[in-house]
Amino acid sequence: MTEDKREVVVTDIKIxxxxxxxxxxxxxxxxxxxxxxxxxxxxxxxxxxSMLAGTGWQHHxxxxxxxxx
Length: 69
Description:
Layout (H helix, E strand, L loop, with lengths): L16 H37 L16
């Protein structure tokens, strides 16, 4: 069986304007929980690395280690 490769070039996609607007709004709404989850993961990794580096809790209290009140 021979496999023939066929190249396809898409020249135009016709989507009504309001359908595109609805799609973009749905994408934006779906991105909010994804960003929150990524921020939580980044915070946990940052906290774990600071604990491993030995800085501990001192830098997680809004500058208390610098004498700010």
